[in-house]
Amino acid sequence: MQRIYLDANATTPVLPQVVDAMRPFWMESFGNPSSTHHAGQRARAAIEHARASFARLLNCSAKEIVFTSGGTESDNLALNGVLSPFLDKRQPAHLLTTEMEHHAILYTAQALQRRGAGVTFLAPNREGVIEPEEFRAALRPDTELVSIMYANNETGAVQPIGKLARIAKAYNPAILFHTDAVQAAAKLPLDLSGALKNVDLLSISGHKMYAPQGTGILFIRNGLHLAPLLHGGPQERQRRAGTENVPGIVALGRAAELAQEWLASHQDRELAALRDRLESGLLATIPGCSVNGPAGDAERRSPNTTNLRFEDVDAEALLIALDLQGIAAGFGAACQSGATEPSHVLLAMGLTAQEARGSLRLSLSRLTTRDEVDRALEIIPAAVARLLSLAQ
Q: Which CATH superfamily is domain 4-12+266-391 in?
């Protein structure tokens, strides 16, 4: 049976070039990068090379890159690192975020709220986008931090992060702006010296950009000090204690280099065209099928993602049926797999619980082929028709 992987927003495969880059650092160049001998310094040099590679991808200083264990840690470090000093001193501190964030943000925000932080959760519009005027109105004199996802993991909707960050800085230059760019990295340009120059903190996860799971980065703008989550050694300029994951960091650096090449050659447009082929084909062949998100505006979505609603179809049953036919798809956040509750993202957009439960996410990878898309265009409509017939 042909296996077709359409769940790249959950995780991506590690590319062969990335495996080749990291392989020597498991058994040959295994030195501790904090050691002063040759083996340690070779590991240190590899880390700094990877840091420089990531800095080129983001157009920032290498000193602003902090390696972490992934997007969840990066998000936690950003929110806790900014707000904990205020809460420890019982000073007022307000966090402005949204209802459609990844749970790494939502649950951290709720934990900070229990500690005394003021938190506002903005609702998006029907397309899953934050309206700038509503964002401006939600800012407060005690707002210390804004955290808004760049590209949504479920719908692919891209937020106007550059504009929102400008609004926040115009309201109060002292407000810090964080964006969870896990689903944007290696798919969309991220220019921290250009369009995103007002962004202070940015999170990325390696396993969403063809590097291993358990790797990630947090961009921290020069001059910004965060309270650390981990206490111990002086690693990462005392911003993230613990012996570095050298193979994982090397892999991240190589993945960043490949992403820069991929974006420079405009292959994101080819991926978007493939996504559009899949989406338009399903819309044309499945009655009652519709798009959740900025439909018809490919530039306002990440190029690999479509979230489709199937009328009178239970998405969980469809997911199982597609898996039996060799297609891997998803509902939304992979960490919520098995949850019985409908997607919090789709509910925040105004969908009913029934509509949310009838929605499925299809996310392509760089390795997805046109033949796989065409095969999916045969399998998915047939699976939907079969479920509808059984329901009658």
A: Aspartate Aminotransferase, domain 1 (3.90.1150.10)
